[in-house]
Amino acid sequence: MIHHLKGQLKEKNPTHVVVECNGVGYFVHISLHTFSLLNNSSEEVSLFTHLQVKEDSHTLFGFVEKSEKELFRLLISVSGVGASTARTMLSSLEPKQIMDAIAAGNTATVQSIKGIGAKTAQRIILDLKDKILKVFGEGEVFISQNNTNKEEALSALETLGFARKSAEKVVDSIMKQTTDPTVETIIKLALKKL
């Protein structure tokens, strides 16, 4: 309904802004990512918007980047993910990090966001993996072979009885030190350090 707003930035907070367009002030909910991209001055701003219409409210969400708006819309299309959860996700991680995590099937990254449990993280990845690649294209989303190797190594270490968090710290340090390690290499090195 309201595709975008272009007007004077009257108020700026980490969770919302007020944009005045021709004498009308629009209260727009934003993510921390959008907040970081807005200037502090009361100059003219342009925001892509998503209007959420409910029985008891009309809520406007704003985004500086069109790609963030598209990602927001994809996230709220997932069952169990509401607008506030999607905004929390976009405030916790950069949109690019979320897209990469979903495309790579990295449940741990998605689950690291406050309020996202294991089942929701898996549902988000299952529902959006193909859509992310279709909407943003494979050039936009980085799927690292290392990520799948890392996940396989972590699940193997979990099966061996190691706690995921401690195993993940060790595996992360191995990934930084070694170029293109195989699953076997990661596991062997991790076993020495755990």
From TrEMBL:
<keyword id="KW-0238">DNA-binding</keyword>
<keyword id="KW-0227">DNA damage</keyword>
<dbReference type="InterPro" id="IPR003583">
    <property type="entry name" value="Hlx-hairpin-Hlx_DNA-bd_motif"/>
</dbReference>
<dbReference type="Pfam" id="PF01330">
    <property type="entry name" value="RuvA_N"/>
</dbReference>
<feature type="domain" description="Helix-hairpin-helix DNA-binding motif class 1">
    <location>
        <begin position="73"/>
        <end position="92"/>
    </location>
</feature>
<feature type="domain" description="Helix-hairpin-helix DNA-binding motif class 1">
    <location>
        <begin position="108"/>
        <end position="127"/>
    </location>
</feature>
<feature type="region of interest" description="Domain III">
    <location>
        <begin position="147"/>
        <end position="194"/>
    </location>
</feature>
<dbReference type="InterPro" id="IPR011114">
    <property type="entry name" value="RuvA_C"/>
</dbReference>
<dbReference type="InterPro" id="IPR012340">
    <property type="entry name" value="NA-bd_OB-fold"/>
</dbReference>
<keyword id="KW-0233">DNA recombination</keyword>
<comment type="similarity">
    <text>Belongs to the RuvA family.</text>
</comment>
<protein>
    <recommendedName>
        <fullName>Holliday junction branch migration complex subunit RuvA</fullName>
    </recommendedName>
</protein>
<keyword id="KW-0234">DNA repair</keyword>
<dbReference type="InterPro" id="IPR013849">
    <property type="entry name" value="DNA_helicase_Holl-junc_RuvA_I"/>
</dbReference>
<dbReference type="InterPro" id="IPR010994">
    <property type="entry name" value="RuvA_2-like"/>
</dbReference>
<dbReference type="Pfam" id="PF07499">
    <property type="entry name" value="RuvA_C"/>
</dbReference>
<comment type="function">
    <text>The RuvA-RuvB-RuvC complex processes Holliday junction (HJ) DNA during genetic recombination and DNA repair, while the RuvA-RuvB complex plays an important role in the rescue of blocked DNA replication forks via replication fork reversal (RFR). RuvA specifically binds to HJ cruciform DNA, conferring on it an open structure. The RuvB hexamer acts as an ATP-dependent pump, pulling dsDNA into and through the RuvAB complex. HJ branch migration allows RuvC to scan DNA until it finds its consensus sequence, where it cleaves and resolves the cruciform DNA.</text>
</comment>
<dbReference type="InterPro" id="IPR036267">
    <property type="entry name" value="RuvA_C_sf"/>
</dbReference>
<dbReference type="InterPro" id="IPR000085">
    <property type="entry name" value="RuvA"/>
</dbReference>
<feature type="region of interest" description="Domain I">
    <location>
        <begin position="1"/>
        <end position="64"/>
    </location>
</feature>
<dbReference type="Pfam" id="PF14520">
    <property type="entry name" value="HHH_5"/>
</dbReference>
<keyword id="KW-0963">Cytoplasm</keyword>
<comment type="subunit">
    <text>Homotetramer. Forms an RuvA(8)-RuvB(12)-Holliday junction (HJ) complex. HJ DNA is sandwiched between 2 RuvA tetramers; dsDNA enters through RuvA and exits via RuvB. An RuvB hexamer assembles on each DNA strand where it exits the tetramer. Each RuvB hexamer is contacted by two RuvA subunits (via domain III) on 2 adjacent RuvB subunits; this complex drives branch migration. In the full resolvosome a probable DNA-RuvA(4)-RuvB(12)-RuvC(2) complex forms which resolves the HJ.</text>
</comment>
